[in-house]
Amino acid sequence: MMKQSTLLKVAAESIARNKMRSLLTMLGIVIGVAAVIVMVAIGNGARLQIESSIKKLGTNVIMIMPTSTTHAGASLGAATYNKLTVADAIKIKREATLVSAVSPVVVTEAQVIGGQGNWKTRINGVSTDFFSIRDWKTSSGEIFTDADVRSGRKVALLGATVAKKLFSGSDPIGAHIQIGRVPFTVVGIMRAKGGSGGGGDEDDVVVMPYTTAQTRLKGDVDIGHMFASAFSASQMPVAQEEIAGILRDSHKLKPGAEDDFFLRNQIEITQAISSTTRTMSALLAAIASISLLVGGIGIMNIMLVSVTERTHEIGIRMAIGARGRDVLNQFLVESTAMSVMGGLVGLVVGYVGALRRVTGWPVATPLSAVLIAVGFSAAVGVFFGFYPARKAAALNPIEALRYE
């Protein structure tokens, strides 16, 4: 039986003998592995970015949203059946034993004028609990107080984006702005949070007491949704059930009646989105893997050509003592070597492509993807190289010697 060192030497000589053909043969594997690495890096990066955005929601957050209603059998969309009130938030805070904080959120949009210009932005009317729930602090100035909420004082905190648009290069604390037709005093700047998982800007917002937003801007008592926070992550599911019971009692829902609200907690959102992004990553990798199969077919075709070209050489080897197993191993080593070399080159190309962020998205390349891609490329070489190798091993020595 041929030694491993001899097999490797013969395979290297054969590959080097036809450099251009070998390079073209490996090209399919290079493209396949590079595509797998880049696709997995993009999918994994997207998952990490979304998880990071969810963490920005705050600490042990439970979101309380109005449910949708239907017309003629068709859903009119979320929040079209809004029965959430400030009284609900007060009742939850008073009666819930597992909830550390709760805040109603009044949502509207308005043109903000002040400083160096004007900017249309989102307005969030909240209570003081909002800042502890969202774990959102000020970079300068102070948040408003419970007294400000009770009196409906016209004070506002600017998100980092709004502060930059209106007061670039100057300190806005104590400055006056106009929201709609109402004057407000800036009491603080919120610390930058960055982008949200949906692609929005968390910092493009003005925050004020919800009482002020209701009476001065929106003109009604509706609240868009509520944020609540459980004392601990382990208590979130139980706290969610407790909130649901309080809201059903507040809305006087009979046993068996459907909820006119729905709840989502941070853990559920993270798990759902992570599952979706993992599925998408696997799908992207599967699509990219098709390139590896195409590369494997290319290796098989070239190896079949090589067997035909080297039939006389195979006959000589068999005549001087080489067995069919030796010939089989020789061709398998050649096909596997080309596949592995192509995989390693593809790994470098894919990793560099991921680092350069060819899509502009954040990327993250897990070690498991690297090992799987290179391992799969080696498996492709063995799988697609086996038939040509077996064909070479099955040649009759006498007929092979006579082959011209």
Question: Short description, anyone?
Answer:
With about 400 residues, the chain is α+β, with helices and mostly antiparallel strands. Helix content is about 55%, strand content about 20%.
Structure notes:
The chain has 404 residues and is α+β, with helices and mostly antiparallel strands. It contains 13 helices and 12 strands. A 6-stranded mixed barrel has the order 4-5-10-7-9-8. The chain has a two-stranded antiparallel ribbon with strand order 2-3. It is elongated, with a radius of gyration of 33 Å. About 3% of the residues have low confidence.
Q: How much is the radius of gyration in Å? A: 33 Å
Give the spatial strand order of the biggest sheet: 4-5-10-7-9-8
Tell me the major beta sheet. Answer: 6 strands, mixed, barrel
Percent of residues in beta strands: 15-25%
**Helix proportion range:** 40-55%
The beta-strand count equals: 12
Helix-strand pattern, N to C? HHEEEHEEHEHEHEEEHEHEHHHHH
Overall average pLDDT: 79
Attribute tags:
404 residues; alpha+beta; six-stranded mixed β-barrel; two-stranded antiparallel ribbon; 13 helices; 12 strands; elongated
Which secondary structure elements does this structure contain, and how are they paired or packed?
Layout: H1 4-17, H2 19-55, E1 61-66, E2 70-71, E3 74-75, H3 86-95, E4 99-114, E5 117-126, H4 129-133, E6 138-141, H5 146-151, E7 155-158, H6 160-167, E8 176-179, E9 182-190, E10 205-209, H7 210-218, E11 225-230, H8 236-250, E12 261-265, H9 266-309, H10 311-319, H11 324-355, H12 367-393, H13 397-402
Parallel strand pairs: 5-10, 7-9
Antiparallel strand pairs: 1-11, 1-12, 2-3, 4-5, 4-8, 4-11, 6-9, 7-10, 8-9
